[in-house]
């Protein structure tokens, strides 16, 4: 219908990742019956934590949905981020303690095995090299003994949740929850807490008396079902049959100044108790986060920037890697440096300790994997690191992470990700590799493929020996060579890599979370039958294809050597055409994401706009392109695509084609836009010369039809009406003009201001137009009235991309707008839903008003009170109370105090107090307000009343007006005394026979007036 004006934002794709480190959290999925975490039942899901400028985002890994975000209170830049999940103590405390003891016993056994192997090797050396000193033997033996001691100390220091756990250790343990730490450029460390909360669905009430009972019964049933599911150990997700809504929130726990220079590294311990911060001046500090005090102030032998840190799970050793290649090992218990060296010449990306805590492994950007032995002596100063083995990896390392002492993941500058199996004695083995991207060898392509961060999937910090798979907590670790990874690149994308099903020695990209879109230049939608949803062109050489709403991209088109400016999608969704600054036109297969056709020799400048013809068949498919070289080209892509489909063997090479027809100098300046009529009869072009040229298509050739003039500035967008022979043009002069293709004249001109209109599109059967301008404003026009019926400031920059999706089956209309601010917004039309809602509300209101009138007529004041309150009719509510008091004031007071007011929820009580606030301002209605206040205070405890939202803003005026009316009533009472005085004064004198001025005796003395008697008494 014409004149739609109800629109709302459906979803938004905003920048969420600007490079840097990635972290993960195991967020609990609460039960509908309680808001407590459910680690016992395994109801958790893994979420990514990432930073974008000064904002922390918590993102669901499967859908890319932003669950919650936190922006720093001051303008700052986040340099590093880390997260930890401290799980709640489960019922199997003894099993946890036994598992911890077994783990530390295994460490001790490994240390003993290392001792035996070291002793054997040393004895063999003595036989071969007799006469040598035994100094190395003594140092090795002493080091192994110290490793055993560290394991014992760590075992004693580890918090055990068994019966032997002391009260002090429990107090020192971190409180359960999910925490995020960030280090900023302004010397600050912020610790944030992520919480989840369940909102139960609002159940419709069948009657007023059964309303609260139904809610309580439903909550009880949901709680019983949740307990049953928890006993079975099944997953209780947010999307259950009860359709509960889980809300996530993130809030600041505390922040402090942690150093005198910028914070380059923050690192949580596995227990979550300690937070390690490293600064750019080389200082390392360890904080007890939840008791807020400094526990370690460690000074390295160098003053280079702290690049990475590693704390072993037993909290016995701390390794620090610098930007200049230094590796320093500290005794975490004794708080002193025990070993130091420089095994690298560039930044150390990752470090880890072996199981026996005798070696530290490190890898840096110099491509060296160093296996260093900690040569430290007890009771002496620190010594150097002895390099046992050094291996040069093939990749140019840009990021790396140790999953364990045996498994290393390396990210390269060209986008290659490799997993190695590391050994102290054997050669390293390549377990799996992500091959180089097809366009990685192109010019400047390495800038976006550069791997910035790596994160092992399914292993959030703090879950201990547990891992996550399918949102379920498992106590058994998976095989190390089947791990999945999250890879963050320089293009601000996060790829989820998993072992390929066909080739186990390779990774495959399962999905990509697009963290930053840059400038959006074009958006095109696929038909409903296609598995893909939209193609998005950003300020890059790649085109992202999305299969669903949100920021998760499923496919990528790579092949252009310069920035892609525009794209077009065929009517069946099988082919995608792109034009770029490299002067090429390419046709891609949407299924294989590979280039099929490559148009050469058509343009001498950047391709600015593309459009397929409307009536497409397998052999008749035309593609029109315009460029800044003032030329219009027509490409016959249907025939070569049909030949390729009929070929017995699909061709692997890209087919090069030339344009079928074209017009040179179609305009006297750059051409910005092209559009094709739905019947394939006309092609319209617009450019900088302020004119709209219409071309006729006959026999796959282009002929000039007319030139439409009227705009005062360049043409930015064109669109044909889907039902009429009308052409719409948008111009930089701020106007939208409608042209008749029959008379070739301007039918209408629509304009609000002089802001440049950059995009437009028809919708709603050609009766309305949506436009986007240079100030980020979306505006909807009604063609019949030539008026703007809706507008919104959707973006903060120029809207370069606009697409309209109309789903006839669902009756939905959605606008997809992209701007230079890097935000893609989906705006939906909900006018039909709003009309239905208004009709239903009006019908329900009429019924309830009739029920209210019937209740008043029958004298059912309790029912009338609740109906008037639910209808939000303060006048009717006041009349109900007045009539009720006039009939039986005692019954009214008792019913309000005992039944009605205690049954009100917070929203209804707030509404009633707001009405009372209005009544008490009027002296005629103050008695009704006083009655409500008296019964409310009598029926509820003051603490329950104080918890009502906005109570402070309601209490103050109520107190003020109550004092005012009380003072007025006291003044009125005092004035009534004058009435008694006047009445007594009007009584005539008593006749007597006594002469005047004769004193009467006391017995005959007259009594004073009534007013004086009252005052005297």
TrEMBL record:
SUPFAM superfamilies: Quinoprotein alcohol dehydrogenase-like (SSF50998), WD40 repeat-like (SSF50978). WD repeats lie at residues 256-289, 557-589, 600-637, 664-705, 708-749, 750-791. The keyword Ribosomal protein applies. GO terms for molecular function: U3 snoRNA binding. It is found in: Nucleus, Nucleolus. Residues 108-174, 997-1017 are annotated as: Disordered. Pfam families: Utp13, WD40. The keyword Heme does not apply. Residues 134-151, 998-1017 have a biased composition (Basic and acidic residues). Its main location: nucleus. InterPro entries: Quinoprotein_ADH-like_sf, Utp13_C, WD40/YVTN_repeat-like_dom_sf, WD40_PAC1, WD40_repeat_CS, WD40_repeat_dom_sf, WD40_rpt. One of its GO terms (biological process) is endonucleolytic cleavage to generate mature 5'-end of SSU-rRNA from (SSU-rRNA, 5.8S rRNA, LSU-rRNA). The gene is LgM4147LRVhigh.25.01220.00450. This is U3 small nucleolar RNA-associated protein 13 C-terminal domain-containing protein. Residues 849-984 form the U3 small nucleolar RNA-associated protein 13 C-terminal domain. PANTHER family: TRANSDUCIN BETA-LIKE 3 (PTHR19854), TRANSDUCIN BETA-LIKE PROTEIN 3 (PTHR19854:SF15). It comes from the Eukaryota. Keywords: Nucleus, Repeat, Ribonucleoprotein, Ribosomal protein, WD repeat. One of its GO terms (cellular component) is small-subunit processome. It comes from Leishmania guyanensis. CDD domains: WD40.
């Amino acid at each position: 219908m014409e004149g739609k004006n109800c629109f709302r934002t459906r979803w938004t794709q905003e920048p969420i990742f600007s490079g840097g480190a990635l972290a993960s959290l195991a967020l609990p999925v609460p039960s509908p019956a309680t808001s407590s975490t459910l680690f016992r039942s395994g109801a958790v899901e893994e979420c990514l934590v990432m930073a974008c400028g000064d904002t922390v985002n918590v993102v669901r890994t499967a859908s890319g949905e932003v669950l919650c975000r936190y922006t720093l209170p001051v303008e700052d830049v986040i340099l590093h981020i880390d997260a930890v999940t401290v799980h709640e103590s489960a019922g199997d405390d003894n099993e946890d303690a036994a598992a911890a003891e077994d783990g530390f016993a295994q460490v001790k056994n490994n240390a003993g095995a290392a001792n035996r192997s070291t002793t054997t090797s040393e004895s063999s050396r003595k036989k071969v090299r007799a006469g040598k000193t035994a100094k190395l033997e003594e140092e090795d033996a002493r080091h192994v003994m110290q490793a055993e001691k560290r394991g014992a100390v760590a075992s004693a220091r580890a918090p055990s949740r068994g019966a032997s756990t002391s009260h002090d250790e429990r107090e020192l343990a971190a409180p359960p929850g999910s925490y995020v730490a960030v280090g900023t450029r302004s010397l600050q460390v912020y610790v944030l807490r992520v919480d989840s909360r369940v909102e139960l669905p609002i159940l419709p009430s069948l009657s007023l008396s059964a309303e609260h009972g139904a809610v309580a019964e439903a909550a009880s049933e949901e709680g019983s079902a949740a307990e049953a599911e928890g006993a079975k150990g099944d997953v209780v997700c947010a999307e259950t049959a009860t359709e509960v809504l889980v809300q996530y929130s993130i809030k600041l726990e505390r922040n402090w100044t942690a150093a005198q220079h910028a914070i380059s590294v923050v690192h949580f311990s596995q227990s979550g108790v300690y937070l390690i911060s490293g600064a750019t001046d080389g200082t390392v500090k360890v904080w007890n986060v939840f008791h807020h005090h400094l526990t370690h102030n460690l000074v390295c032998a160098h003053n280079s920037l702290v690049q990475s840190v590693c704390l072993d799970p037993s909290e016995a050793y701390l390794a620090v890697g610098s930007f200049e290649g230094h590796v320093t090992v500290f005794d975490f218990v004794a708080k002193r440096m025990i070993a130091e060296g420089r095994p690298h010449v560039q930044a150390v990306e990752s470090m880890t300790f072996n199981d026996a805590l005798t070696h530290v492994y490190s890898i840096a950007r110099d491509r060296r994997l160093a296996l260093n032995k900690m040569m430290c002596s007890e009771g002496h100063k620190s010594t150097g690191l002895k390099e046992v083995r050094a291996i040069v990896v093939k990749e140019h390392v840009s990021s790396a992470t140790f999953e364990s002492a045996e498994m290393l993941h390396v990210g390269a500058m060209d986008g290659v990700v490799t997993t190695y199996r590391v050994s102290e004695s054997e050669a390293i083995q390549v377990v799996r590799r992500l091959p180089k991207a097809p366009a990685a060898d192109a010019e400047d392509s390495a800038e976006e493929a550069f791997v910035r961060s790596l994160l092992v999937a399914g292993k959030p910090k703090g879950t201990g020996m547990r891992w996550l798979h399918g949102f379920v907590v498992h106590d058994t670790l998976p095989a190390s060579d089947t791990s999945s990874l999250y890879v963050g690149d320089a293009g601000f994308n996060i790829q989820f890599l998993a072992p390929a099903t066909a080739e186990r020695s390779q990774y495959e990209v399962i999905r990509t979370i697009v963290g930053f879109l840059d400038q959006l230049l074009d958006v095109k939608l696929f038909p409903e039958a296609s598995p893909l949803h939209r193609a998005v062109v950003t300020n890059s050489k790649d085109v992202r294809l999305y299969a669903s709403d949100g920021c998760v991209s499923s496919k990528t088109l790579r092949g252009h050597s310069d920035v892609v400016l525009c794209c077009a999608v065929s009517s069946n969704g099988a082919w995608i055409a792109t034009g770029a600054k490299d002067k090429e036109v390419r046709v891609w297969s949407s299924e294989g994401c590979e280039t099929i056709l490559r148009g050469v020799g058509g343009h001498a400048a950047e391709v600015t706009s593309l459009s397929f013809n409307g009536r497409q068949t397998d052999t008749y498919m035309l593609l029109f392109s315009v460029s800044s070289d003032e030329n219009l080209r027509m490409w016959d892509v249907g025939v070569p695509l049909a030949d390729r489909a009929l070929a017995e063997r699909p061709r692997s090479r890209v087919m090069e084609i030339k344009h079928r027809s074209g017009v040179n100098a179609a305009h006297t300046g750059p051409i910005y836009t092209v559009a094709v009529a739905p019947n394939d009869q006309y092609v319209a072009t617009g450019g900088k010369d302020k004119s709209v040229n219409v071309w006729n298509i006959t026999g796959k050739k282009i002929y000039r039809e007319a030139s439409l003039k009227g705009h005062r500035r360049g043409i930015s967008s064109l669109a044909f009406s889907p039902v009429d022979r009308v052409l719409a043009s948008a111009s930089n002069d701020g106007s939208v003009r409608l042209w008749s293709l029959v008379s070739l004249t301007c039918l209408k001109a629509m304009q609000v201001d002089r802001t440049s209109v950059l995009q437009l599109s028809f919708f709603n059967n050609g009766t309305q137009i949506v436009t986007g301008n240079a100030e980020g404003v979306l505006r909807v026009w009604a063609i019949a009235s030539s008026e703007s019926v809706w507008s919104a400031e959707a973006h903060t920059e120029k809207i370069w991309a606009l697409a309209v999706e109309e789903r006839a089956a669902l009756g939905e209309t959605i606008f997809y707008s992209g701007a230079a601010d890097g935000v893609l917004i989906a705006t939906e039309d909900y006018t039909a839903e709003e009309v239905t809602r208004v009709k239903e509300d009006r019908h329900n209101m009429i019924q309830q008003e009739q029920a209210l009138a019937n209740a008043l007529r029958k004298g059912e004041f309790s029912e009338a009170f609740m109906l008037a309150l639910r209808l939000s009719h303060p006048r009717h509510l006041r009349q109900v109370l007045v009539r009720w008091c006039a009939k039986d004031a005692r019954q009214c007071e008792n019913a309000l105090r005992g039944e009605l007011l205690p049954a009100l929820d917070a929203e209804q009580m707030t509404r009633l107090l707001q009405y009372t606030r209005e009544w008490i301002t009027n002296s005629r209605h103050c008695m009704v307000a006083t009655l409500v206040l008296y019964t409310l205070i009598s029926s509820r405890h003051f603490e329950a009343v104080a918890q009502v939202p906005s109570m402070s803003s309601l209490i103050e005026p109520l107190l003020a007006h109550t004092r005012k009316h009380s003072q007025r009533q006291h003044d009125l009472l005092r004035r009534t005394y004058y009435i008694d005085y006047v009445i007594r004064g009007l009584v005539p004198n008593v006749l007597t026979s006594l002469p005047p001025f004769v004193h009467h005796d006391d017995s005959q003395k007259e009594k004073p007036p009534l007013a004086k008697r009252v005052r005297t008494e």
